[in-house]
Predict the 3D structure of the following.
Amino acid sequence: MLNQKRETQEKQNKIVGSLDSDWARLPQELLLHIFQYLPLLDRAYASQVCRRWNQAFHMPELWRCFEFELNQPASSYLKATHPDLIKQIIKRHSNHLQYVSFKVDSSTESAEAACDILSQLVNCSLKTLGLISTARPSFMEVPKSHFISALTVVFVNSKSLSSLKIDDTPVDDPSLKVLVANNSDTLKLLKMSSCPHVSPAGILCVADQCHGLRELALNYHLLSDELLLALSSEKHVHLEHLRIDVVSENPGQHFHTIKKSSWDAMVRHSPKFNLVMYFFLYEDEFGPFFNEEIPVTHLYFGRSVSKEVLGRVGLHCPRLVELVVCANGLRPLDEELIRIAKHCTQLSAIGLGECEVSCSAFVEFVKMCGRRLSQLSIMEEVLIPDHKYSLDEIHWEVSKHLGRVWFPDMMPTW
Amino acid sequence: CFTSSPPPPPKKLCDMVVNTIHWFRKGLRLHDNPSLRDSIRGADSLRCVYILDPWFAGSSNVGINRWRFLLHCLEDLDNSLRKLNSRLYVIRGQPTDVFPRLFKEWQINRLSYEYDSEPFGKERDAAIQKLACEAGVEVMVQVSHTLYNLVKIIELNDGHPPLTYKRFQALINRMDAVELPAETITLEVIRNCATPISEDHDDKFGVPSLEELGKFLFLFFIRFETEGLTTAIWPGGETEALMRLERHLERKAWVANFERPRMNANSLLASPTGLSPYLRFGCLSCRLFYFRLTDLYRKVKKNNSPPLSLYGQLLWREFFYTTATNNSCFDKMEGNPVCVQIPWDRNPEALAKWAEGQTGFPWIDAIMTQLRQEGWIHHLARHAVACFLTRGDLWISWEEGMKVFEELLIDVDWSVNAGSWMWLSCSSFFQQFFHCYCPVGFGRRTDPNGDYIRRYLPILRGFPAKYIYDPWNAPEEVQKAAKCIIGVHYPKPMVNHAEASRVNIERMKQIYQQLSSYRGLGLLATVPVHINNGGNGKRVDAGTRQGSAGSCETPSIQEGMSSAGT
């Protein structure tokens, strides 16, 4: 880019006094096309070359997408979007913005700065909005009223919001009502995991009104039979993807159950939908789960999960596609794995962390799953050598059955 | 025994006297020291030198345990050299100042040292080679700190260091056999070579005591406290190293098991057969270890082809040395082509709690206490605390953890430390990030009774096994009976682990999705798989695109659907 600039300067220097310069006379559409390939900084340099290039730089098409990066040197190693640039965007381009995201670090300052910018996007008609904390959830530290009023500005002014990502924020039921009042026809994606101020009624309102909703992410406490039924009502489009985080606040927490009939309704309505569940529970909190068939497709256990629960998973999760187990404990999961291989016929990805499986059972498991296993991530320590296979032999056996070279995941030994 | 046949002695120009210096840096041993051996051949005088350089990279961050270990090594070396009618010369200063002086004073025309593959080592040595050249000093360098010549491994991989351990193993399989260790320096070997020891040698060149060293380093703002120091759990030196090697092999032979040993409560404690610090300082030759292991395996298993896994410890070390050798930014995230740019949190308060063992998680705190007191922790303990600091709980940069390890661990060196931290924080090497070590559960499964906790955190001795890993959950009566109220005598847990791991797995996923452009729902598929084309440095930069609007590849949200891929 700098070469081009230099070339331009040289050429212009040669055409001293001439009013015409080929470079300056490039059609705007062509300039636009070229500029779209350039990263922002280079485009900014280009905009300083001549008036026409400067005009091109400010064409609306170049300002549809923007990611505001808000970092403080005291809390982040990464650079922030320059404040002058932010000012310029708000001044000249806020009505061009359509796809916007805010990436903030762990400082409250950054989250507040994001809210300030949001409050000024009065002329925006956003299609996409993402509020992303890259470290600790700093939006939760912002005074609730400040956050809500900023968010409401967007909801009210952008009447065609399609995609909204507001995980780990203090959004609440009233603001969701505002969202629904203005964007119910267009909302397709809503990610709001870990929003503690929302109640099941609040999210139900969204499901009832936003019939185009295809993707939803929330915490288990917001999930209800009514919600699932609302999402499977006739008026509603097919749901594509439902993500649920099940998080324990205190040990021994009690979780409600969802009726099998509600899940069945979902599957009938949206036969291809993906149900992604992330569990962060203590071992003894799994009582309400996996006692009946559940259409989960992607299952992640972020803490230790018992052998017994994994056994239930094998029995009740016929649609399972991916299973990831962080830790289990020191009793071999042989039977449970075999059962999963048998009943979860769609399983194509499995990850095992701190668990134990005998080499023979593991080979059996792989044999039963065969080539549908496209992801097999097993920590080396998981595999227990037995009379049939040693650790060195096992990778050949498994590779054979998978049809590709496979090794367990290793960790460095000092 | 294993020795290579000696090369022919270097030619002498008429009857020129050859005065040689052997420069010890690592390789603090007389067995398998080919550069020293070559140096002696045809030399008339030999002086073995160790330079105490407070300016050298990382020196300001060396803790007392490592200084002490180093001094033990130097003492041991000096003793061994005494038996050969020679001595060790310990000189304080910077090599670029020291050597020209010594070349002149001692009329040196030959200099030898063991090859140092680390970037700062190479830089330092290049400067010394230049000085030597100018002074007409012949330089003799040999590889003996690693099993292989790392340059050759990289050549075999089309000029790039392998980025995955699997790739590295594949390359190792294609390399020529490891060279046999060089013959030990004995009276016989050194017979024609004298060391002109002066009367005031001890004053001028003697190995300093820890206190003397402390006084010297104090001038460079390097402080450590020698009062209240307990006996060294890890005594340094070649003599100790060779004894441990025998014990280590004896134990393996007795168990007749060469598999990776299962982790149990005992493994956490310092072992009399542990070898890692001795390998790091070069008190033990990695090649000797390699060949002795091979020999033992062949005898016990009656099998002539030992698997690569037998050499696990040595090969990991080799792997990180290889990856680091051409990358002076290897110990940083910024500007490091093999490191994923992750938006770590800056949090000095939280970092300090971790470093000082005040997290409120007994498992973590006990490990950090052992680390600080003894200078060594088991590698799974390292994984636990590294995971806790970075991608597991605190979301603090691995560079910070690496610095703390650099200060406290005696077996750490630049390449292995940086490489391991990147690995454990899932910042490189295409690691899956899903497996998180629980700061409660992992410890409990390793040592159910909690003896390790009680040993290093005596304040928690009164807690029963049921609560010792999560004492904040213990009812008041239990805490009172244990004479330890959580929040008063021992800190409350500094994070909620479930919440922290939930947040962090999401962060890692965000980063890796950007890296791999994967938009599906699977967790495992977000990590890009190593491509079998030599694993060349494809820039693993999740990067902050400075508000790039560019082509409408929307930064983090797709308009509407995300591809419901499997």
In short: Chain A has a mean pLDDT of 91. Chain A touches chain B through 96 residues (CB under 8 Å). The first strand of chain A starts at residue 65 and ends at 70. The CA atoms of residues 119 and 352 of chain A lie 45 Å apart.
